[in-house]
Amino acid sequence: xxxxxxxQMSPESPFKSHLNTNYIPTDxxxxxxxxxxxxxxxxxxxxxxxxxxxxxxxxxxKDYVDSHKALISHxxxxxxxxxxxxxLACLPTAHNAVMSVTEPPLLLGRICxxxxxxxxALPRLWASLHIHVDYVRWDEExxxxxxxxxxxxxxxxxxxxxxxxxxxxxxxxxxxxxxxxRHSSYWSTLHLYKLSxxxxxxxxxxxxxxxxDIEIHFRDDFEEDKESxxxxxxxxxxxxxxxxxxxxxxxxxxVPTTPFMxxxxxxxxxxxxxSVAYGPEDGCFDMATAYRLFEGCPRLxxxxxxxAVQFFQARxxxxxxxxxxxxxxxxDNNSTTSxxxxxxxxxxxxxxxxxxxxxxxDRYYGxxxxxxxxxxxxxxxxxxxxxxxxxxxxxxxxxxxxxxxEQLAHLSKISIILWTP
Length: 421
Hints:
Elements: H1 27-71, H2 74-77, H3 80-89, H4 113-120, E1 128-132, H5 133-136, H6 140-153, E2 158-163, H7 174-182, E3 187-193, H8 197-204, E4 213-217, E5 243-248, E6 267-272, H9 287-296, E7 302-307, E8 321-322, E9 328-333, H10 338-346, E10 348-349, E11 355-360, H11 373-381, E12 387-393, H12 398-405, E13 413-419
Parallel strand pairs: 1-2, 2-3, 3-4, 4-5, 5-6, 6-7, 7-9, 8-10, 9-11, 11-12, 12-13
Organism: Favolaschia claudopus
Protein name: F-box domain-containing protein
């Protein structure tokens, strides 16, 4: 294949002395220049055509080479078990997988036939899913895609995050709820954000034996049913004793006003929703309700809740309460005085407690609701405390604080945040 070009060196230009200057040619000179350029322009066009032909030939040869190299490429020769591990490592870690063709696992199935076969036959790839109700609401194809996705994950435990919409009168698609209930036996992690009360009620009635972690942000229009308490719902009664996290406008309403026994609850977090402007004590547990929760959950290992003990409650004499299995206690303290909060702590006997987190939500008012004497009393009732997290105001003397903490013989980790009012 002869691609040589018999190009001759350009002759000496008769206008060499004027090139790259501001010289203005005369009309006869312009005609002379045009005549001089004709053969050179023809030569340039010939070279451009040759380059174009060469590019076409190069692309053809490159495609030929690349297609053969693909046959011996390393990814093609990877064993299937290695590919499966690579695919699993591609899944997002900060959130559940989403229904998008630009992200795994759907993206992996669009590369080639082999990858598609592996992707759709690997249940663990489909074991997590983020569902935004607005995205699938009343769309039959997308709703069907949810069902197909969850079927591919069988028999692996499912991690499902469902994102609803806040606001009274907004109802979730019952078809989505129906699909989720059909797969309830495989629920492992379930996060529900702002679903309608009707949707939450439907899901709560399901049997979920594999459920180990549930987090629910209730809508502001949710109201606890006193006849059928949410924390006693069927889907929380599985053998795994799931970690339960609830965010709502009124956490104390989830505790019955009459004696109860919930042996299935071991790890519980009750938080106030941030969407509501609270008074200092709104949405907080008073002393009686908090104690009733302790008594009704004898197997509690960890508990997080907002507390607001009234000053007059510090005068009441109550019998000490044994909380024998509690290992971690996190309190959002909104009590009116330090005496009131100390009275609350003083009457709790927590022999297995190792972690204590205290946050003073009233810190911006320049008052201190936790005094060092609290820690001195804890040494008697909870001698095994090894980790403390404190989020307090700077009104508390650091020297006094450290003096109180020194009383805890097993203390090995301290985290302190001091806020300036």
